[in-house]
Amino acid sequence: MVRKIFIILVIIFVVIQFIPPGRPDNNPVKGKDLMEVANVPQEVASLLKTSCYDCHSQQITYPWYSYVAPVSFLVSRDVREGRKKLDFGHWGDLKKRKQIKALDEISEEVESGEMPMKIYPIMHPDARLSDAQRQQIMDWCESYSDEILN
Questions:
Q1: Distance (Å, rounded) from C-alpha 68 to C-alpha 14?
Q2: At what angle do helices 96-112 and 131-149 cross, to 10 degrees?
Q3: Which helix (H) or strand (E) holds 75?
Q4: For residue 149, what are the CA distances in angstroms to 56, 100, 131, 139?
Q5: C-alpha distances in Å from residue 98, one per residue of 22, 59, 103, 136
């Protein structure tokens, strides 16, 4: 009985590998990415690229496990949802009011520890943010908001 269940599970695992996950493509638009249009200090830029850009940009680096179902479905979903909430790759398309709102939301999510998602640093240890790094991002959000307003 256990052997039959194991064989069925293996068959299911193999079959789902042929179902396309709908992985979002990278479609960078020159001159629209946050790093191209905003004043982002190098340290903050590095933190954002390491901890945020794999779900919130047009420069996603898909790791090996994102090609193996069922994880591929989860990664694809997270990227789609992340881009829908905020896509740094289209920052230049946002009106100033939307940029300020986005900066406020970034600051709140980072301060609360909601971002990066709890599961992300497990496979990406460099994405873990210390309290000091979180504060750097929050300080930049505030100063860049002030810069946009002036």
A1: 10
A2: 160
A3: helix 71-85
A4: 24, 8, 27, 16
A5: 28, 21, 9, 21
C-beta neighbour count of 120 within 10 angstroms: 16
* Residue 116 token pair: 């990066």
Q: pLDDT per residue over 91-142, tens digit each?
A: 999 999 999 999 999 999 999 999 999 999 999 999 999 999 999 999 999 9
Selection from 58, 145, 135, 140 nearest residue 101 by Cα: 145
* pTM of the predicted model as reported, rounded to 2 decimal places: 0.89
Nearest to 70 by CA among 10, 7, 21, 120: 21
